[in-house]
Task: inverse folding
C-alpha cells in the first residue's frame, strides 16, 4: 500500500470513529425536541442532521505543509473561511512530520516563557437555538519537568462567540506539569475536573457546546469529565459559535509559572454542527 492509499485508509477510519462518537452524542439533543413534540401533539418525525464545518484532515498535505501553521489552509477545506490565524507573538505552532497520530503530519505547539498564544480559524454560527457544536481533536502533551511543585502551562482548546460581544463559551486544557484536565467556571477560574491525561500520550478530546441548555461538556477518550454553563454566560450576549482556538497559556499566577515552557502536539482537529427539527420544518 502506497502513502496515498494509507492516508486514504486513515481518513476513512477517522470518519468511522467520528460517526460512532456522533451517534452517542445525539441523544441529549433529542430531549428538548421530544418535549416540544409532546406539547404540540405533532406526529412529525424528529430529525437530527450533522454537518462537518471544518476538518483539518489530520493536518496532512496538500492543504498543509511543514512550517508555521499561521496562514495555512487558506480555503478552509470544507469552507472558504481560512486561513489559520494567530493571537500572540512568542510561542509557535508548527506543522511537522516527526510526531503525528495516524498520519504523517501534526501540529507542534510550543509555549515559551511569558507567552499567551492562540491559533484558530473562523468557522460558523448555528442555524437555530437547538443547535449543538462539537469541537474535537487529538492531543499529546509532553511533561514539563523544568520546575517541580508548580502548575502549568495549560495546553488545550478554547471555544468562542465573537459575533455580538466577545464571549468565551468553554475551554479544556491539560496541565503540562500535573496532567490534570482543567476547565473554566462562570468566573473564568481554572477548575480541576478530577481527571488526568497521561503526559506524553495521545488522547482524544471533545468540547460539546449545547445552545439549548447553554452549557459545555468536555470529554477525554469518550469519557465525560465535566459539564458547566457557558463561561461568559452572565456577562456577554451569546448567540453562536465562531471559532475554537488551540491555546498555550500560563497555568498559574507568578513569575515561576510564567517562565515555564511546554510542548503539545495536535492532530485531527474537526468542528461539527448538529442541528435538529421535525420533518416538514
Result:
Amino acid at each position: 500500500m502506497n502513502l496515498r492509499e494509507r492516508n486514504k485508509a486513515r481518513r476513512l477510519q477517522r470518519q468511522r470513529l467520528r460517526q460512532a462518537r456522533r451517534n452517542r452524542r445525539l441523544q441529549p439533543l433529542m430531549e428538548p425536541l421530544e418535549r416540544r413534540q409532546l406539547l404540540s401533539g405533532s406526529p412529525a418525525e424528529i430529525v437530527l442532521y450533522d454537518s462537518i464545518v471544518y476538518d483539518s484532515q489530520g493536518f496532512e498535505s496538500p492543504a498543509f505543509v511543514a512550517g508555521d501553521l499561521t496562514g495555512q489552509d487558506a480555503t478552509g477545506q470544507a469552507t472558504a473561511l481560512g486561513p489559520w490565524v494567530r493571537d500572540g507573538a512568542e510561542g509557535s505552532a508548527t506543522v511537522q512530520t516527526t510526531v503525528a497520530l495516524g498520519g504523517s503530519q501534526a501540529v507542534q505547539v510550543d509555549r515559551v516563557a511569558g507567552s499567551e498564544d492562540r491559533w484558530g480559524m473562523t468557522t460558523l454560527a448555528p442555524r437555530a437555538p437547538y443547535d449543538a457544536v462539537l469541537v474535537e481533536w487529538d492531543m499529546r502533551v509532553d511533561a514539563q519537568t523544568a520546575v517541580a511543585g508548580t502548575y502549568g502551562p495549560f495546553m488545550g482548546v478554547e471555544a468562542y462567540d465573537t459575533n455580538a460581544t466577545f464571549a468565551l463559551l468553554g475551554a479544556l486544557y491539560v496541565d503540562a506539569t500535573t496532567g490534570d484536565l482543567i476547565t473554566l467556571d462562570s468566573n473564568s477560574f481554572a477548575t480541576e475536573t478530577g481527571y488526568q491525561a497521561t503526559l506524553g500520550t495521545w488522547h482524544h478530546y471533545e468540547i460539546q457546546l449545547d445552545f439549548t441548555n447553554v452549557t459545555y461538556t468536555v470529554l477525554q477518550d469518550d469519557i465525560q469529565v465535566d459539564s458547566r454553563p457557558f463561561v461568559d454566560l452572565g456577562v456577554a450576549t451569546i448567540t453562536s459559535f465562531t471559532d475554537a482556538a488551540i491555546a498555550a497559556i500560563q497555568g498559574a499566577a507568578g513569575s515561576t509559572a510564567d517562565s515555564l515552557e511546554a510542548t503539545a502536539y495536535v492532530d485531527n482537529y474537526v468542528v461539527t454542527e448538529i442541528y435538529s427539527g421535525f420533518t416538514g420544518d
